[in-house]
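pls design
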């Protein structure tokens, strides 16, 4: 009894001291579900950069050293995913189904279950259909401010007013609203009220996946293409997760399908991303379960947008060439003594826009494919959408002029410097632009969208 009391006192003392000292580690934040690290593309940007939890406008300039002191940034392209959004109509229907089961069939006695049954309300409606939420507006506003702090000479009031910052967006409402939000972040920062700034809708660039016939027919609209995903959903790891949920609810195993399991996971994820609350739905999963859910979703992204099929990444050829042609233009303008005419491009699209491009560039490639049977050996995989593609995920490419025709290209993913895979030189972490072009020479000379996306007569087959 004494030991117990003593432990109790020490425990409380530790809690008090941690709070009084105000050095709470964001990782220990009690308001964050333990499973929030595994939400795939439904994850918060803050989980990827936890320092933002304390200060959403913080930038870590110390990790972004220009290649050398005399370097100056001359061009920046940012390819950004839209911010936090509502679930899609399909997800909402599944959530409603699950909620009905919990209301009418669950007989467990846990307090969280009681809370769902008596206090939680199904507030999602089908017309919300994937729209940007207020948190999503803020995601983009804050990102705009942080990027302007990281690159003050490029994302500046002068450049914006001069029309040197171009905005290109996918036509989807959540992307257009994200674009408006990014712009609002800048105009509010500089208190610009006398001027509005245009954006261009361009689905050929930002929703290329819909326009690539070969991809649509062979992968996107082909259930056999995701056979590994379906096998995993039927497999032992996933079955165990479903059984544990049924046990927690005290309903027959047959009632909890994979779709409903996913709906439960999404409910926890959406309640957290949209409202910043840890909802009672989160209690349906422990971390072991969450990792299985995360893998199922990564598996799907791998086969539908990632390395699973060559056409997935090739569908982004147009965007790839577009990015490099603007880099080339900036490089040659600077070299020939002209002002760079397009110093900044901000392009807003989808996870489905970023992932094929990241794959084309070779990022997050593991030695083994993700399959239905190698869950256990893939625990250390780099292909992890929770890290790569939270809401407002972004790939930023910055071209530096370092004097004497020395141009260098720095890639950043989610505001952290990364290196082009296969192009690392410890003495020069930021590669020469020429070396980057050499590294991607084959793609720069080929990767023709029209040819790759044709259904027949694919070059690899003739
Ligand atoms: C910034 O980056 C440096 C170097 O990686 C790191 O030591 C530091 O903790 C980072 N600061 C924040 C606030 O994350
Ligand atoms: C679930 O509850 C509904 C409504 O009470 C009932 O009609 C249905 O039979 C129940 N299903 C199972 C499997 O118990
Ligand atoms: C998004 O834009 C539409 C109109 O384009 C507007 O009605 C809606 O309120 C916007 N949503 C947000 C969250 O800004
Ligand atoms: C669907 O995918 C499977 C597996 O990759 C492939 O063998 C088949 O040809 C695809 N079907 C179509 C219509 O392309
Ligand atoms: C998708 O496949 C279905 C049947 O497999 C077919 O009816 C439909 O036309 C296809 N859609 C596209 C866009 O290819
Ligand atoms: C190229 O860019 C650098 C860095 O901004 C600048 O100092 C230099 O004047 C530019 N060259 C020309 C010809 O504009």
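designed seq:
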């Amino acid at each position: 009894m004494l030991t117990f009391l003593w432990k109790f006192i020490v425990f409380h003392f530790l809690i008090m001291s941690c709070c009084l000292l105000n050095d709470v580690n964001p990782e220990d934040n009690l308001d964050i579900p333990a499973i929030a690290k595994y939400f795939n593309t439904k994850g918060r940007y803050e989980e990827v950069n936890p320092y933002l939890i304390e200060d959403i406008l913080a930038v870590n300039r110390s990790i972004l050293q220009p290649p050398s002191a005399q370097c100056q940034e001359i061009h920046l392209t940012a390819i950004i995913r839209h911010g936090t959004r509502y679930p899609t109509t399909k997800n909402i229907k599944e959530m409603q189904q699950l909620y009905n089961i919990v209301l009418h069939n669950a007989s467990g006695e846990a307090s969280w279950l009681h809370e769902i049954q008596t206090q939680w309300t199904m507030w999602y409606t089908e017309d919300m259909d994937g729209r940007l939420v207020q948190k999503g507006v803020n995601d983009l506003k804050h990102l705009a401010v942080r990027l302007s702090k990281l690159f003050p000479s490029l994302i500046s009031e002068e450049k914006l007013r001069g029309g040197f910052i171009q905005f290109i967006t996918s036509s989807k409402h959540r992307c257009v609203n994200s674009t408006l939000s990014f712009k609002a972040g800048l105009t509010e920062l500089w208190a610009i009220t006398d001027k509005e700034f245009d954006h261009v809708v361009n689905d050929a660039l930002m929703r290329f996946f819909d326009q690539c016939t070969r991809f649509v027919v062979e992968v996107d609209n082909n259930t056999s293409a995701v056979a590994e995903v379906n096998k995993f959903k039927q497999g032992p790891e996933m079955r165990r997760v479903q059984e544990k949920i049924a046990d927690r609810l005290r309903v027959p195993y047959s009632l909890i399908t994979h779709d409903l399991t996913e709906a439960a996971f999404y409910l926890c994820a959406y309640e957290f991303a949209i409202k910043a609350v840890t909802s009672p739905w989160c209690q349906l999963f422990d971390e072991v379960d969450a990792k299985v859910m995360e893998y199922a979703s990564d598996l799907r992204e791998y086969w539908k947008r990632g390395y699973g099929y060559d056409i997935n990444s090739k569908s982004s050829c147009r965007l790839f060439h577009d990015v490099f042609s603007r880099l080339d233009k900036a490089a040659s303008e600077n070299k020939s003594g002209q002002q760079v005419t397009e110093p900044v491009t901000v392009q807003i699209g989808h996870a489905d826009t970023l992932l094929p491009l990241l794959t084309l560039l070779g990022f997050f490639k593991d030695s083994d494919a993700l399959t239905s049977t190698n869950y256990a050996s893939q625990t250390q995989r780099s292909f992890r959408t929770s890290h790569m593609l939270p809401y407002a995920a972004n790939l930023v490419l910055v071209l530096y002029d370092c004097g004497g025709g020395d141009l260098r290209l720095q890639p950043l993913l989610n505001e952290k410097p990364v290196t082009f895979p296969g192009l690392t030189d410890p003495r020069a972490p930021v590669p020469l632009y020429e070396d980057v072009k050499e590294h991607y020479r084959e793609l720069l000379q080929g990767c023709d969208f029209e040819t790759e996306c044709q259904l027949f007569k694919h070059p690899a087959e003739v």
